Amino acid sequence: MKKIIAALALSVFAASLAFAADEIVLKAKNGNVTFPHKKHQELLKDCKKCHEKGPGKIEGFGKDWAHKTCKGCHEEMKKGPTKCGDCHKR
Fold first, then answer.
1. What is the pLDDT of residues 36-71, one digit of tens each?
2. Of 8, 39, 58, 78, which sits most exposed with the smallest number of CB within 10 A?
3. How far apart are CA 28 and CA 70, in angstroms?
4. How far apart are CA 43 and CA 3, in angstroms?
């Protein structure tokens, strides 16, 4: 029974990766942000880094969350955009 549950959980996880958008465009007052979702999936390999409650929308997502979490991760990893104009394109 445990093997069946594990196989089912793995299947659901793999399906969620397969159906996730390649890029997501986030509308912002000071310029839209194009988020390369697939690239982040491949690099991080851990959805819970952003999606604490599993696949789907991020609870509490907004300007403050993104600036703290996304920018903070980029600064920590010394990789990715950290300046306003690097993300926000007019």
1. 999 999 999 989 889 988 888 898 999 999 999 999
2. 78
3. 15
4. 28
Choose the CATH number for 22-89 among 2.30.38.10, 3.40.50.11270, 3.90.10.10, 1.10.1670.10.
3.90.10.10
Residue type, 77: M
Q: Please list, in sequence order, all residues whose beta carbon lies within 8 angstroms of the beta carbon of residue 7, skipping any fewer than 6 positions away.
A: none
Give every strand in the sheet of 88-89, ordered side by side. Answer: 24-26, 32-35, 88-89
Every domain of the chain and the residues it spans: 22-89
Please provide the DSSP assignment of 55-68 as one string: SSSPTT-SHHHHII
CA distance 15 to 32: 28
- Total number of residues shown for the chain: 90
Where helices occur in 20-83 by DSSP H, the ranges are 37-44, 63-66, 72-77
* Model confidence pTM above 0.85: no
